[in-house]
Design brief:
682 residues; seven-stranded parallel sheet; globular; binds adenosine-5'-diphosphate; binds magnesium ion
Amino acid sequence: MFVRAGNQYITILFLWNNEMRLNDNIINIKGIGEKTAEAYTRLGIETVRDLITYYPRTYKTYTNPVPVRQVSEGDRVAVFCQIVTYIESRRGKRYEITSLSASDGSGSIRMVWFNKGFLKSQLHKGESYVFYGTIKIKGSLRVMEMPEFFTQFNYQKMLSTMQPIYSLKSGISNNSITRAINNVKEVISGLPDYLPEDIIKERGLMSRSKALLEVHFPKDEDSLREALKRIAFDEFLEFLIRIRMLKEKNVQEVNKHLITNEAIIKKDAFVAGLAFDLTEGQKNAIQDIINDMSSDHLMNRLIQGDVGCGKTVVAVAALLMNCISGYQGALMVPTEVLARQHFNDVSNMLKPYKLVVRLLTGSMTAKEKRNVYEELKSGVADIVIGTHAIIQDSTEFKNLGLVVTDEQHRFGVKQREKLSEKGDSPHVMIMSATPIPRTLAIILYADMDISIIKELPSNRKEILNCVVGTEYRPAADAFIRKQVREGHQVYIICPMVEESEQLDAENVINYTDELSQRIGQNIRIDYLHGKMKENQKAEIMTRFLDREIDVLVSTTVIEVGINNPNATLMIIENAERFGLAQLHQLRGRVGRGDAQSYCVFINTKKTQESMNRLNVLNDSNDGFYIASEDLKLRGPGDFFGIRQSGMMDFAVADIYKHADMLRLAQDISLEYGEELAGKIVL
Ligand code: ADP
Ligand code: MG
């Protein structure tokens, strides 16, 4: 009721605001011309609404300067120093290098910039500045690379403010986004709240418009925290309302794809032919699937199990039963690399059954894709494996009976809605390694039934972990040699693809060079990263799986799903830069076979905090434990990092960090869902 009144209210308010509306193109905003608007579309921003909900990636806070004597490697600090040398500029291998030495009496630091020759005319010997950056120790020298610098007066003004940092693309600066949002401030402040006053008060929530303003122009940490909570709440509520509608629709669907007895018998033969015995968890999951697929209703099932528990074979069993019963099946994965690997594995496993298995990915040629589309439409193809290309509109099936999605972290409600519209009500199965506590899982997957695979296969040995500093590298090199000599393979993970001016972290390309020089003889080293062409990536992965590459240096593109049981060692460089959950996923690439596996976390930033975090992984291989510790250990800095690549559809909401908001949204959706459905503004 209040919502209807609310909607009218919106119209009036927008007329007040120079008629600027949420759906208006951003070209109507002061200061945005055609060219800028064009650049904004590359960030996915076309309307005023898009702009307002383009949340900062993180926030930068400036802290009081500290004495140089107290700084240590990896600290991100401000120092107040006098320039004690002339400013030098010289051409390095890749960059022009500008440098100077500065001191505060307690110690000195070398300041270094790349490709910033113009600084020579801005900085002078004898002057004092506050320099802000990350400390590196090189021999006996303290170095700050690419520091920012401010006069003391200006720095005072910046202190204790929080500067939003947005994700950018060329043609758009952080300032330009801040300015644009500043110009629609009135639109934001005029936004009505779809939630009634009394709920807002009673539950202690910030109002919607205040939250949006705070996110872009935070007053202080406390109010930013409240703002993020409110936005998380809104995201959860919308999600839950849609999930509920989806569920209502799904429970009415009758099962049009019953599985046959013959299919179950074939499945038994398939299981008997496996090189291993299934775990109890795997057997139960398969039984749940059989029960679902032979019931009156559609299957909607989440299979949850930690990395390495063996979800693929469960999916294959389901696909087999489905196809033997006469229907088509689809397996959807998040990356092409994984799609290709699953394609090879599944084709192999199903060889005896003479099923036609096809790969469908975005990078295939138009002609190749067309062939697969035709085979799916005519029913020639039994199983298709691929990336989200599968659920695009151009894919038609003759008789789609089952869709399985694997490791889709972003498998939100939009994707679930889309799937339920594909084909003629296929069964749906989601496989996930994300360790969500059961209490939250039943909320987030309210539209699904859940099977949990608790145990790892019994042949597994616990992965042995260690957290070390960079001085461990020679020992690591020796260890790599040993593993390779024993016929095993190695992953090395670097955070970056190539050298960068802004970030000091290991990169795949240089690392591969250096490693080849150190241990190259007789060891075949190659690299993989996300910027490579899909066919290059595929070729590297194939060679790695065929054991033609001994050591694969890679970014996190191999994070999910990849299975090479012969890989027994993973070394993660700059481990402090990754989230714990992500490190756990990465580590899951080893320990997949009979042999003892190892994971070495190289911690470049030797602060107590990063040690504590990494020790969680050192102590445990259990995804649930890691996720809960991760939450406890998140420092204030992490608190404001907004993960753009979070789970489901959420930009801000984090199911762990905002678990209380998830529960609140659940309460509200149960109580008021009906009234609020479809009325949530923004
Ligand atoms: P995930 O659950 O991470 O997707 P996979 O399905 O990729 O795990 O399985 C990891 C490895 O374990 C594969 O090599 C697979 O063949 C093997 N595996 C699966 N189930 C078992 C089992 N019950 N016993 C032994 N090995 C198994
Ligand atoms: Mg998997």
